[in-house]
Design goal:
Elements lengths: L7 H14 L2 H10 L13 H15 L3 H12 L9 H15 L4 E4 L6 E4 H7 L4 H24 L1 H22 L7 H21 L19 H6 L15 H23 L6 H15 L30 E4 L2 E4 L2 E2 L7 H12 L4 E4 H11 L8 H12 L6 H4 L13 E4 L3 E4 L5
Antiparallel strand pairs: 1-2, 3-4, 4-5, 6-8, 7-8
Helix pairs in contact: 1-3, 1-5, 3-4, 7-11, 8-9, 8-11, 13-14, 13-15
């Protein structure tokens, strides 16, 4: 039996840190996934004591105790065990490492793959020659290049992944409106989309730009509520937030941001030619001379809201705003409020609710004030983003709102003006 260098005091503090960060049921799931013997797991019990007693058993009985304990701790700081929230996992790892260093153990690795090492391993990892450091950097850069090429070679797969994940979020949002009554149609849709998303991620096979797919429910929608809330019987009480859209939404959005990032890479191979740029310059010159309706002033827009409240319009407008909903020809649009196309349209409507034309620059500023996740996009990327989310036939606002190609006045409701911006033909008179 090898002697463990982990001290009981350090293990106690580590156990308390883990117990404070995870629900009881999640702790048991992780321990069982590591195939910790059932006799080591004393539960129901205080969360940290359950973990500490597992450490005690491993320390006294395992022939490779240090390595096994390190693996257990590594699993507890894995981001996917914190709903893919790398910030939470990183914060926990920092607190744990504060205690581990007293036993000469450390936590290292990239933010999505932290692991525990001993002093000797740490020294070996940080004793690189200049040539080895260059090789390591080249390996990372090579993986990035390979990923980018895979993404650009699989544009259709990336687009389907983005579309499927958006629909996946919509299905979960609908389910969360009434978690007590899942329907067969919703459940089948959920399972179908999970399979499609996992298949697309595996097909892409990215290394450096991995997508950490988040499934809030281990099995299906029928068992989702009991997974999250428990039965409330003794020994089956779940700690943490109750199942709701607010509880799962941030983690779904984090993953969608990762998918959007690779989707943007897939579009980079569509370059604007010199002729296109020159044509845009000429178009800009022409549009500067055009008479157009002035957009609403910035100080009239409430940027802290998804929608600003505009005075109730009459039927001379195709689209009107009713509270936090939109109506098209008097009928409320049944569309999700958390996807990109809705947010982009909200920005457009906030600037020119009665219709008119708006320059790209103004619309881009408004969108970025509402969507922090797109602040780093260039103007060219933002133009593509606007076009995709307003008029794209497969994924835009016009499609999901089921608005016809042209209105009764013969004009499209929303039209992209090349090199200038967007025209919103909202007046029906």
């Amino acid at each position: 039996m090898s002697k463990s260098t982990y001290s009981l005091k350090v293990l106690e503090l580590v156990a308390k840190a883990i117990g404070d960060s995870l629900a009881g049921y999640k702790i048991i799931q992780i321990l069982k996934s590591l195939k910790v013997p059932d006799e080591y797991i004393n539960y129901p019990n205080t969360k940290w004591r359950t973990i500490y007693e597992v450490f005690e058993h491993i320390k006294s009985k395992d022939s490779d105790a240090d390595n096994t304990i390190s693996k257990v701790i590594t699993e507890f700081i894995y981001p996917l065990n914190h709903n893919a929230d790398e910030d939470v996992a990183h914060k926990l790892s920092k607190e744990i490492e504060k205690y581990l260093k007293y036993d000469k153990f450390y936590i290292t690795g990239p933010s999505n793959e932290l692991f525990v090492v001993d002093e000797q391993e740490m020294d070996e990892m940080h004793t690189f020659s200049p040539a080895e450091l260059i090789q390591q950097k080249e390996r990372v850069e090579n993986r990035q290049r390979l990923d980018e090429q895979k993404i650009k070679d699989n544009i259709d797969t990336v687009k389907k992944l983005k579309d499927n994940h958006q629909t996946y979020m919509d299905i979960i949002e609908i389910f969360c409106q009434n978690t007590k009554k899942p329907t067969k149609e919703l459940n089948d849709a959920y399972l179908f989309l999970v399979k499609k998303i996992e298949s697309a991620i595996n097909q892409l096979g990215l290394q450096q730009s991995k997508v950490n797919f988040y499934k809030p429910f281990k099995n299906d929608l029928y068992t989702a509520e009991i997974e999250w809330n428990g039965t409330e019987d003794f020994g089956n009480v779940m700690f943490g937030p109750k199942l709701s859209w607010d509880a799962v939404r941030p983690y779904l959005h984090r993953v969608h941001s990762e998918i959007t990032r690779i989707y943007n890479i897939s579009e980079e191979n569509t370059q604007i030619t010199d002729d296109d740029k020159r044509l845009e310059e000429i178009t800009n010159l022409i549009t500067e001379k055009r008479t157009q309706q002035a957009p609403v002033k910035k100080d009239e827009v409430k940027k802290m809201e998804i929608l600003h409240r505009y005075e109730k319009a009459d039927n001379k407008f195709y689209i009107t705003q009713d509270g936090y909903d939109f109506k098209y020809k008097g009928k409320t649009l049944n569309i999700s409020k958390n996807n990109d196309y809705f947010k982009v349209f909200c920005a457009l409507y906030a600037l020119i609710p009665e219709g008119g034309e708006v320059k790209y620059k103004e619309l881009i500023t408004e969108i970025k004030s509402r969507m922090p996740e797109v602040k780093s996009k260039t103007e060219t990327e933002m133009r593509k983003f606007i076009q995709a989310n307003l008029t794209d036939k497969s994924n835009g606002f016009m499609r999901y709102a089921e608005i016809p190609k042209t209105e009764d006045n013969g004009k499209p409701l929303i039209k992209v003006i090349r090199g200038f911006g967007v025209c919103f033909n909202n007046r029906g008179d």
